[in-house]
Amino acid sequence: MTAGRPRALLLDLGGVVLRLRPRACFEYWAGKARADLRDIGSRWGIDDAYRAHEVGALDFPAYAERLSARLGIELAEHDWRAGWNALFSGTFPDVVDALPRAAARLPLYCFTNTNAEHQATWQGRYGHHLTSFTKVYVSSEIGRRKPDVASFEWVARDMGLGPADILFLDDSRENIDGAAAAGLRTVHVTGPEVTLRVLNEMAA
Question: What is the pTM of this model?
Answer without folding.
Answer: 0.94
